[in-house]
Amino acid sequence: MRRMTEDNLKNAFNGESQAHMRYLIFAEKAEEEGFKNVARLFRAIAYAEQVHAANHYNVLGMIRSTVENLQEAINGETYEVNEMYPAYNAVAKLQDEKGAQRTTEWTLQAEKIHAAIYQRAKQSVESGKDVPLESIHICGVCGYTSEEEFNRCPICGAKKEKIKKF
């Protein structure tokens, strides 16, 4: 693929991915405010944006084997843990941005867990097995992730009602 086309598809993938997330966030807000149909509209179009992003990603040849995809996920999580979020948090502290300090620290702690879970999953897949996994519990406030149920989030203190089970 020629460089300009590749760059365009990468930019399109990034834009569609951001629109997907932005619309899901907007849907939650519309739902909170009682606008059920607006929430449904945002979710529907968020799905369309996901389809667009997936199409671009596929043409770019970025979808590989599960082992390779897990390694890509591990690399991304590890980068966030070792470089990105420590730097972002340092800047937030330097600029005394309390909200940014909080969210970057919460995210950093959750990303460490994600990297470890992906690593375990990769080892299982490499041995020809699916990862043994009962359920995954995610804090809806900070993103803390656990394979075991918890009543209060150990990172942000959120109550059980904010925990989503997968």
Account of the 3D structure:
The structure is a single chain. The mean pLDDT is 97. This protein has 4 helices and 3 strands; from the N terminus they run ααααβββ. A hairpin with a 5-residue loop joins strand 1 and strand 2. Strands 2-1-3 form a 3-stranded antiparallel sheet. The chain has 166 residues and is mainly alpha-helical.
State the main characteristics:
globular; 166 residues; Ferritin; Rubrerythrin, domain 2; 67% helix; mainly alpha; 3 domains; 3 strands; three-stranded antiparallel β-sheet
The overall pLDDT, averaged over residues, is: 97
Cα separation of the termini: 38 Å
Number of strand elements: 3
- How does the helix and strand content classify structurally? mainly alpha
Are there runs of 5+ residues with pLDDT below 50, and where?
A: none
Break the fold down into its secondary structure elements and pairings.
Elements: H1 3-32, H2 36-59, H3 66-94, H4 98-126, E1 137-139, E2 145-146, E3 163-165
Helix pairs in contact: 1-2, 3-4
